[in-house]
Design a protein that fits this description.
The complex is a heterodimer. Chain A is mainly β. Chain A is built from no helices and 12 strands. In chain A, strand 5 and strand 6 (46-52) form a beta hairpin. Chain A is globular and about 40 Å long. Chain B is mainly beta. In chain B, 0% of the residues lie in helices and 49% in strands. Chain B has strands spanning 5-7, 10-13, 19-24, 31-37, 44-50, 53-57, 65-68, 75-79, 88-95, 105-106, 110-114. In chain B, the strands form 2 sheets. In chain B, strands 2, 4, 5, 6, 9, 10 and 11 form a 7-stranded mixed sheet that branches. The chains are: A mainly beta, B mainly beta. The interface between A and B is medium-sized, with 22 and 28 residues.
Chain lengths: 113, 115
């Protein structure tokens, strides 16, 4: 079974600085999708960014970018110019085909003003 | 806003009671997913529907759990004879199958507390 591991239960960063959240996954497939979701306190989960495994180019969405290392099965999220509104739980997730999402345990990100 | 909605948002029940949750997906989304999230953990898959057909169920979904999606629109998740271990956030997500690259959009969840 596919597994997703987030080894950083908590991270903190100063406002306006850059932070990187780590994620590794285990799969024997070559075609799959990876996602980062953000879950603010008491609010619903929203998609931050996604990566298709067959694309070598790292995905970017404004201040959010990923470092996708397919051979190493690593998928880290970089948040540039951190803002107070970025404070949330961040979940890395894997999906193969039209299947369920498999989530990591999450990383709680705190932004220090 | 026409996002995924869930009702109720909170539910407190006594052990042994039955509860039912409802999820209304984004209009025209043909896939609907249920996940369960316990405190401090990532969501875990329970089941999913394509239109009205339930295509996959997790081993987490014991025989006390049943889900339906009549007419391929809203879905209900029922838990019979609730146990304290059922206390969790129940999340619904929907997506539109487009061959590749579909994204699941989540609702706000129903938080269940079993006393």
């Amino acid at each position: 079974a596919q597994t997703v591991t987030q080894s950083q239960p908590e991270m903190s960063v100063q406002e306006a600085e850059t932070v990187t959240l780590s994620c590794t996954y285990d799969t024997s497939e070559s075609d799959y999708y990876l996602f980062w979701y953000k879950q603010p306190p008491s609010r619903q989960m929203i998609l931050v960014i996604r990566q298709e495994a067959y694309k070598q180019q790292n995905a970017t969405e404004n201040r959010f970018s990923v470092n996708f290392q397919k051979a190493a099965k690593s998928f880290s999220l970089k948040i540039s110019d951190s803002q107070l509104g970025d404070a949330a739980m961040y979940f890395c997730a894997y999906r193969e085909g039209a299947q369920k999402l498999v989530f990591g345990q999450g990383t709680r990100l705190t932004i220090n003003p | 806003d026409t996002g995924v909605s869930q009702d109720p948002r909170h539910k407190i029940t006594k052990r042994g009671q039955n509860v039912t949750f409802r999820c209304d997906p984004i209009s025209e989304h043909n896939r609907l997913y249920w996940y369960r999230q316990t405190l401090g953990q990532g969501p875990e898959f329970l089941t999913y529907f394509q239109n009205e057909a339930q295509l996959e169920k997790s081993r987490l979904l014991s025989d006390r759990f049943s889900a339906e999606r009549p007419k391929g629109s809203f879905s209900t998740l029922e838990i019979q004879r609730t146990e304290q271990g059922d206390s969790a956030m129940y999340l619904c997500a929907s997506s539109y199958s487009s061959g590749r690259g579909e994204t699941q959009y989540f609702g706000p969840g129903t938080r269940l507390l079993v006393l």
